[in-house]
Specification:
Elements lengths: L7 E6 L6 H12 L10 E6 L2 H6 L14 H5 L7 H13 L9 E7 L5 E6 L4 H13 L4 E4 L16 E8 L8 H22 L9 E11 L11 E3 L16 E5 L4 E3 L7 E3 L13 E10 L4
Parallel strand pairs: 1-2, 1-3, 3-6, 4-5, 5-7
Antiparallel strand pairs: 4-6, 7-12, 8-9, 9-10, 11-12
Helix pairs in contact: 1-6, 5-6
The chain binds zinc ion (ZN).
Zinc ion binds next to loops.
Length: 299
């Protein structure tokens, strides 16, 4: 286990302004801060994209969750978009000059894909893997997914702190509150805060010697014509089948004339973010992952 004490944790929502689950919860925590207080560290809350939340849009000018690379944050001339300005404000709040930096970020999101409870850890640091192990022991249905490897130049908000994760819950439409996903997100936030508290008190032991994880391989776009118009939609047999094995030859898309387009890969993969509403503009129909067993070692 990582031996340093955690001093500050930030629970953040509204990086995407139309993902209401986390926004609703952070507002609840702001009204009742005792819910997220723990004795061994300070917990902050933050609503990230204020203008997008007000407008019930994912963003105003650009995706805020692509504005946090070191290079962009230090570029003082990059202020044309609201999100570039807000990213600099958020970085200053989480890494203030007169107080300790935030050590752990819990970044709350939701998805229109059927991903249940998924966490995307910030990194494979032992502290983060210990957190995955702890959450998996509390809630065996939680899935652990490692996203794209951005390295030092990650543009994601979660890269502002060394520890923590993104929580994705779904499926839930944008701009909708669903009690089930609210409860799941709140459960996970409390479990992570309890993990940090137990870590600070030296009360942690790994519960398992390995962990099932999903590693992002690549994204797949919809078939499109030369003008970029969609030529096919997600095949009905694949809709809502996130984390289920997709084998070579399995149905992937259905064209407007009713033809099936099959998966052309050579190995079985595990798609996630299938038919995520926000990803049409990113040219992503789904993200393919591989399933692995990760060995956990006590440090
Ligand atoms: Zn989001």
């Amino acid at each position: 286990m990582y031996s340093g004490l955690i001093q500050r944790v930030a629970v953040i929502a509204g990086v995407h302004g139309n993902e209401w689950t986390g926004i609703h919860l952070v507002k609840k925590f702001q009204q009742s801060p005792e819910l997220i207080e723990r004795s061994t560290f300070e917990t902050l809350t933050l609503l990230a994209n204020l203008k997008a939340i007000e407008a019930n849009l994912r963003y105003i000018d650009k995706d805020l969750n692509r504005c946090f690379s070191k290079q962009d944050l230090s570029n003082l001339e990059l202020v044309a978009s609201y999100e570039d300005r807000r990213a600099k404000e958020i970085a200053a709040l989480l890494r203030p000059s007169n107080q300790p930096n935030v050590d752990v970020i819990i970044d709350l999101h939701s998805t229109t894909a059927n991903m249940g409870m998924t966490i995307f850890p910030t990194s494979t640091e032992p502290f983060n893997l210990g957190m995955c192990d702890y959450l998996s022991a509390c809630y065996p249905e939680v899935r652990v997914c490692f996203g794209e490897r951005y390295g030092q130049e990650s543009p994601l908000l979660r890269s502002l702190a060394p520890y923590g994760c993104v929580i994705e819950v779904g499926s839930v439409p944008q701009g909708v509150l669903n009690a089930r996903q609210l409860q799941q997100t709140e459960m996970l936030v409390h479990a992570i805060l309890n993990y940090v508290d137990a870590h600070n008190q030296g009360n942690l032991r790994l519960t398992s010697s390995n962990l099932t994880v999903y590693h992002v391989l690549c994204s797949v776009d919809y078939p499109r014509d030369a003008a970029g118009e969609l030529q096919a939609v997600i095949h009905p047999q694949l809709q809502f089948q996130d984390y289920k094995p997709l084998n070579p030859g399995d149905p992937m898309f259905l064209t407007s004339t009713g033809e099936m387009i099959s998966f052309q890969g050579k190995t079985t993969v595990f798609p996630v973010f299938i038919n995520e509403a926000a990803y049409y503009e990113k040219h992503i129909a789904m993200i393919l992952t591989e399933k692995q067993q990760l060995e956990l070692k006590a440090v």
